[in-house]
Amino acid sequence: MATKSNLFAYLMALLSILLVWQVASLFVPGFLFPAPAQVLPQLPAAAAHWSFWEAVSVSLLQLLAGFATAVVLVGVLLWPTLTFLPFRRYVAAFTGILQAIPPVALIPLLVLLLGFGGAPVLVVVAVAAFFPMSLSMIGAIDHLNRLHLDAVRVLGATQRQMLRRVVIPEMLPALLSGAQAGFGNAWRSLIAAQMVLGVSEGLGGSIQRASQVGDMTTVLLDVTVIAVLAAGLNVWLFEGLKRRYLSWRTA
């Protein structure tokens, strides 16, 4: 039931976006802002070309690699942040300072350090995904029920048992929400980084090339593909994880 409800919600959201797009296109010349009826029929022709799938696959690989790196970093920080209060305060301050800096602002520095190509994009994506997850982790730790931790500690639970039986289950809702927010940040930063770097690969590169020649149909087609991919990954990954591990909250 939850899956059908979520799919229906995403379908309605996509339809409402298409409606707003259609209405807005009535007030702007077609060569500047094509209507959905002009853009969407171009998808089969675009999908028949290998460069379309190359752009999609490159973007997805960079997105998933950067996001996975951020997840690993948060996982490594979890236990010391949970058990050592000064370190938790340090991570909170570190995150609070650096989260205000747009990850794409780091690109000039990353290009000097790593050169052009996919490496700076991957770092930008990882940084964009890391901060929302880090903040969610700290918030979840602050709201942990200390009575539960003390109880299992008195009963002789090991560090692994505490994590598995108490800490992770209590923190999981906040961690998943933070991961979902980080994933959205990662998408935005990925496309921005590909456009800023001027790389020829990825959906961001495709948007940049199309915009340089005023091909707004391709620009909007790529934006539509990004929206559909983001919605699909949200439903498949995050809603799937919530359905599997948090179903007890709505039962």
TrEMBL record:
Gene3D superfamilies: MetI-like (1.10.3720.10). It is a multi-pass membrane protein. Coiled coil: none annotated. PROSITE patterns: ABC_TM1 (PS50928). The keyword Transmembrane helix applies. CDD domains: TM_PBP2. InterPro entries: MetI-like, MetI-like_sf. Keywords: Cell membrane, Membrane, Transmembrane, Transmembrane helix, Transport. The chain crosses the membrane at residues 7-32, 52-79, 91-115, 121-141, 162-183, 219-238. It is found in: Cell membrane. It comes from the Bacteria. Residues 48-237 form the ABC transmembrane type-1 domain. Belongs to the binding-protein-dependent transport system permease family. This is ABC transporter permease. It comes from Deinococcus aerolatus.
